[in-house]
Design brief:
By secondary structure, this protein is mainly alpha-helical. The chain has ten helices and two strands. It has one domain. It has a two-stranded antiparallel sheet with strand order 1-2. The longest helix is centred in the middle third of the chain and has 21 residues.
Amino acid sequence: MTLLLYDDLSTWRSDLKKTAISTVPVSYSLVPPLSVPVQECAAWIKHAAAELIKGSFFLRFGVDEQGRTQNFAHPARCETVISFFYTGPYRIARRMPEIFRTELPLSCLALVAAVFNCVLDGLAKNEHGKSYPNFSMKDYGPIYCRMLELLKYILEDAYHGPRLAAAMNLKGVDEARHDHLQILLD
């Protein structure tokens, strides 16, 4: 399903990229601190984005309580997934509830990781954030396929596999986003 959409619908890819563009810079702290002079901001962003790509740090989110790497666990991933697949204009999850009701398909997580790579590539190459690479099957298909391989490899791991599976489990996503809303039944 994802491959079909990924390959054929350029507006779909473009909108996913726009969603990622709105999330990635702030979520990955790619906004230069005030101590960086204005004339050096572009170079600072370029360097920071290149560092995230170089070590694939954008795929990780620190370490867990056991001191082990949290792969594909960055909160930006979840924010982008919910914004695009569940609440955005496409609401693909509503069109295919049997697929999206209980968990995020692995292919969708790989797609989000690939689009993050695309956005970071744009910042690393153009630093000003005004132009980004084309998020096409030709350019990012190999990265998407590699993301799928990495995800499958993680799922096979005795420690990291269950953690990734739990992160992809979407039971309670809606409730978690609105847990501040309560009623009192006296």
